[in-house]
Write a structure and sequence with these properties.
With 154 residues, the protein is of the alpha/beta class. It contains four helices and five strands; from the N terminus they run H-E-E-H-E-H-E-H-E. The longest helix is centred in the N-terminal third of the chain and has 16 residues.
Length: 154
């Protein structure tokens, strides 16, 4: 396994842990935005600032104002002094069409995801725009840190 693949798996595991912050019940999604080996933003799916942390109605239907993890990470970096130009987005579920538009406009060059969502039009758009996409399925039991000769690889 090469160094980039090891890093991709680590950041995906971190995005999966970050998804645990979501108050959504139907699906919890986490995202990390990484540039020059540093996390510059993070996000998880949830309601906009100032709204109650209730993602679904009484029938289990997601409220239309709930933000996706990717949108939260992108808007968070937009409010900072960082730039997402040339960065990599790690997200637990493949992006939808709306998030893919934001990814393209934010200058993100690479998207790494672990779960393939049933609707793939967002990935089709990313491919058409030349954004690299990488699908890495994580197996929680097999994704423990790899130890070589008693040390974790760099």
């Amino acid at each position: 396994m090469n160094k980039q693949n090891l890093l991709d798996r680590r950041y995906l595991r971190m995005a999966a842990i970050w998804s645990e912050n979501s108050y959504c019940h139907r699906r919890r999604v986490g995202a990390l935005l990484v540039k020059d080996n540093a996390i510059i933003s993070d996000g998880f799916n949830g309601t906009p600032s100032g709204f109650a942390n209730i993602c679904e109605d009484n029938n289990g239907v997601t409220h239309p104002y709930v933000l996706h993890a990717e949108a939260n990470a992108i808007t968070k970096v937009a409010r900072s002094n960082n730039s997402s130009e040339g960065s990599t987005l790690y997200v637990t579920t493949s992006p939808c069409m709306e998030c893919s538009k934001l990814i393209i406009q934010a200058g993100i060059r690479r998207v790494v995801f672990s779960e393939l969502y049933r609707i793939t039009d967002g990935l089709d758009l990313l491919h058409a725009a030349g954004v690299e996409t990488v699908h890495i399925q994580l197996d929680a039991e097999k994704e423990l840190p790899l130890v070589v000769d008693g040390e974790l690889p760099v």
